[in-house]
Design brief:
With 381 residues, the chain is α+β, with helices and mostly antiparallel strands. It contains ten helices and 16 strands. Strands 1-2-6-3-7-14 form a six-stranded mixed sheet, sandwiched between helices. Helix 2 crosses helix 4 and helix 8 packs across helix 10. The longest helix has 21 residues. It binds zinc ion. Zinc ion (ZN) binds next to helix 4.
Length: 381
């Protein structure tokens, strides 16, 4: 590849200006289920592309979720799809408490700043520069989605539709382990297990009852025992609910189960195991529903080539770019990779503490990673 830097002599990035912009984005808190708040966030993004030579399409949300925004540069044919989610896991009010927007040395704190408003913002800045300069070789489509943090139930079909027409997918999830990008993620499954027993008076008719809680207790141990660290498979009973009162043998109990699997074969194998759970007590009815929500993001030859290309761009900017090992968390990149689109993830801001009250991005990563995104948009062909 011709040296990107020699080709373009990219402008330096106005980091102070970008910190201000990131602040504007995190101050507009946007927990997934708060449609009004997330739509305000989409308003902000939309207002920041009005002066660009792009077409924007705002697709109304449904099922209690906010709108989706598609921003396209000119051009035809398969291009680059950039994916950013602008919802966060943090409830409204964190901005006034533990995650108030502030700078502490190299750290920049704010709700969703690391996951992933920081990354989305710097990708948009790169996009703005490239679109203004008309310097991309491929058409660009930037998708802002409102529901990634709950598994993208609404935006998945849009992401997949756009991915089918894309040559590459770039995902602005946070960088990890000191600036690494992500080329592999586990698949994510989700299941509900519901037990229905036989209720009875816990004092006078104990022997007639069949406890749904007792049944589920045994199922919890069986499910947790499926975890196989050597194979990278984990099963987690994440929530449990059941029973009505201390003096009733409980009729109902239910759990939700999370499955993480490194490859499609393991995903299928463990999905089948969970769906085939049988009651220990034959008098208790057990119903298991669910399946894989995100298929594993597997590294392919094409995605490895994309990663090496990004490495070369980074080298040119002046920093080494490594790839993280297999990640347990899923992203919308799982969907695009499953469709065979070379996908590079973890292109967002570096930092730490995703989903916690010490979530922060690193100011020192703003410039290199904005330049990296810009370099990718200008050199991929
Ligand atoms: Zn995220």
């Amino acid at each position: 590849m011709l040296s990107w830097r020699a080709m373009t002599k990219p402008n330096r990035i106005d980091v102070a200006h970008m910190i201000e912009g990131i602040g504007r984005w995190v101050r507009q808190e946007s927990p997934t289920r708060d449609t009004t708040a997330v739509n305000r966030m989409i308003d902000i993004v939309q207002s920041e592309v009005v002066d660009l030579p792009v077409t924007t399409e705002r697709i109304p949300g449904r099922d209690g979720l906010a709108d989706m925004l598609v921003v396209r540069s000119a051009g035809n044919g398969p291009g680059i799809l950039i994916l950013s989610h602008i919802d966060t896991v943090h409830p409204i009010g964190m901005i006034d408490e533990a995650l108030c927007f502030r700078r502490d040395g190299d750290r920049l704190y704010g709700p969703g700043l690391y996951d992933m408003k920081g990354g989305a913002y710097l990708a948009l800045e790169a996009f703005r520069q490239v679109v203004r300069a008309g310097s991309a070789r491929l058409p660009l489509t930037f998708l802002f989605t409102p529901d990634e943090e709950i598994g993208s139930p609404m935006s998945r079909s849009l992401i997949e539709r756009e991915a089918r027409q894309a040559r590459y997918a770039l995902v602005t999830e946070p960088a990890c382990e000191g600036g690494k990008v992500i080329t592999q993620r586990k698949g994510v499954g989700r299941f509900d297990v519901k037990a229905t027993g036989v209720p009875s008076h816990a004092g006078t008719r104990h022997q007639d009852g069949r406890s749904a809680i007792k049944e589920i207790a045994r199922q919890v141990l069986a499910i947790e025992a499926m975890t196989d660290y050597a194979r990278g498979v984990t099963t987690t009973v994440g929530t449990i609910a059941g029973g009505t009162a201390t003096n009733v043998v409980p009729q109902y109990c239910q759990i939700t189960v999370g499955l993480r699997a490194p490859d499609p074969a393991a995903a299928e194998e463990f999905k089948a195991k969970i769906l085939a759970l049988q009651p220990f007590d034959p008098d208790v009815k057990l119903v298991v529903t669910g399946g894989m929500n995100r298929p594993p993001l597997k590294k392919s030859e094409a995605s490895d080539t994309l990663y090496r290309h990004a490495q070369a761009v980074a080298r040119d900017i002046g920093f080494p770019l490594d790839e993280a090992g297999l990640r347990g968390g899923g992203s919308d990149g799982n969907f695009t990779a499953a469709l065979g689109v070379p996908t590079l993830d973890g292109l967002g801001i570096d930092g730490d503490g995703a989903h916690t009250d010490w979530e922060h991005g690193l100011i020192s990563s703003i410039e290199p990673r904005t330049l990296l995104m810009r370099g990718l948009l200008e050199t991929l062909q």
